[in-house]
Every structure is written in structure tokens, then in C-alpha cells.
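Agenda item 2: magnesium ion complex prediction
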Amino acid sequence: MRIEKITVYTGELSYAGKAYSFSQGRIYTAFPTTVVALKTNTGITGYGEVCPCGPAYMPAYAEGVIPALEQLAPVVLGEDPTHTLSLMRRMDLALNGHGFAKTPIDLACWDILGKHSELPVHVFLGGRMMESIPIHRVVPLGTPDETLASVDELRARGYGHFQIKLGLGVAEDIATMQTVCASARPGEVFVGDANAAWNRTEAIRISRGLREQDCMLEQPCTATVDCITVRPQLLHPVKLDESLGSLAEVRAAIAANAMDAIAIKLSKFGGITRSRVIRDLCVDAGIAMTIEEAWGSGIASAASAHLAISTAPEALLNGTDIHNYNSNQIAHGAPEVDNGHMKVADRPGLGTEPDFDALGDPVREFKR
Ligand SMILES: [Mg+2]
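Presented output:
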């Protein structure tokens, strides 16, 4: 099988809430997304997607995807998409880093592998380990009362895992987490996510201020090394996210005992191929995982869901139904959510197809 054509579509996903706000003044109401169609000589077409969570979150931005695809297209066209690791190696040799831009190609290759084999992608990642994935919900930055109201609203819809955005200040962050944790029901999970906003002193003071609260702290400081330095003085499990962008960084973080949990966003690592290795490494190291995407439609959600559902249940903290954070959709067949859990279809491939009416005409095409 050979890749004959790469067609690129762009779209805009509107945030379903008022505004998606997190620390350091990052506020977004819409997210530009890129969908890639890989057409093969057998008639099978695979689809992938990448949608950064704004340009100031990870080293990734939507407008950078197409220039990077121009670098990647010559080494992708003519290759066999079912040889996923071989193709990833070709992309790595052609373009250093930029995992986000390799992600839609990688996802489309896994989609093709599944469609060609008439099997869902999760089969190739280890197979289904659970009926459905527990999912967490992100609550944007707000006052304690606003945050509690959001948690109550999500709780009423069946969600039991909450990621609370923090980063307004030591007293404010402590008050917010105390308020929401005081409302906790048995089995609920609370994570306070600073998104790298705290310096070392703030991280220590906030953790000590929350000594009575059963919660986790996510990405307290910007750099992994600073999280490692403060960790002996923190009273809470630490989850790392945006400071880990490669397999080497994850390996070093595990070796340095930097974290108890990790957020694996496929596009940080270049898609399923690399994230799967990191997933398996973290299972072995006893690191709990959120397996998700930074943002996206049903295609991005499906890809992360296939990796999540094939993860040992004791290692999977939760996943994210990121497509449901949008008020508009650009794909059919997105994973369905029921009572705080996300289902993964057993349709061949990723099980999702773009909505071409919503996407409109392609913006770029690369051919052999
Ligand atoms: Mg995070």
C-alpha cells in the first residue's frame, strides 16, 4: 500500500462555554483545527487531526501545521502507511521535533491500518481493557463560587473527575480548591492545574495550604527540574503535563521521580506511535495517566480514546471528551459519552470520518 495524496482541511472549533481561560492570561473562545486525509492507492483513505490549545500552551500553533506538512510530505508520499513506526522515523529524520504537525499524519496512518485490517485501532495498541473510559472535565479559571457552580453542573451530568484551573494567586488558589474539595463526594477526583504558573515558593505554600484536601497538583512549576526540586516539600501527588514533550523527557522524569501522574496528549509526542511507547513505559513505572488531546474534534478524541481504552485500568486515571468542549462539530462518529464515561466504537480504524460539509474545500494538497 502506498500513500498517493495528502489533502489538508482547516476548520474552527468554538468553545462551548463562555471562555476557556487558564493561568497567565491565556483565554480562548475558538481553536483552529487541521484535518488531514491520506489517500492510498488501494482506495482506503485515513483521517487525522491536530488542534493545539491556542499558541501559548505547548510549543505548537495551528498556523505552523501546514508549513511543517510541506517539509513532511516528500518523505510521506509513496510510503506504506501501515508501517507506522517506519513512517514516524522518516518524518523525524526530515523534521526535528514539531510532533504536533506529525500527529495528523500519524493518526491517519493508524486509521488506514485499522480500515485495511477491518479492526479498530485499539486492537493494535493492546486491545480493549475496559467497557468505557472514565473522563475528567476541565473547569476554567474562576472564583471559588464560579468554580463550585461549574463542578456542580458537571456533577449533575454524571462527571466525577474534575480538573480545576488555578493560577490566580496563592490565597485565591487555596480558596478555590478548598471550596470544591469540601463538596467532594465519594470516588470523585480533583486535580488543581496551575499550567506552570507557580514559582517554587508558591507551589510549596499552596500545597501546604491544602494539607487537608485530597487532591492532586498538575504542572505546578514550568520546568520539570523545578517540580522535582519542590516535590519533597509538597504534600500532594504531582501530575506533569506540558513540561514533558518527548520520550527522553518522560524517561528522565521517571528516573528523577518527578511525578506520580502524567497527562499524555497525543500531539505532544507526534501521535499514537510515540504516545503508545510512553503509555507502556508509564504503566510499567506505576504512573497514573490522563490520555487525551490538547484540543480537537471527534477525530482527535477518538484517537486518544483508542489509546486510553487499551491501557491497563489501574494505570488509566481518565481521558477527555475534548470534542464535547466545542459548540460545533467537524466529524461524524465521535466517541459517545454517558454518565462521565466515554465509549470507543469497534468500527474499523479510528471510527470517525470528517464532516466535509462543515470543513469546506481543502486548503492544500500534496501529491506524488
Ligand atoms: Mg494539564
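Discussion summary: The two ends are 14 Å apart (CA to CA).
Owner for follow-up: CH.
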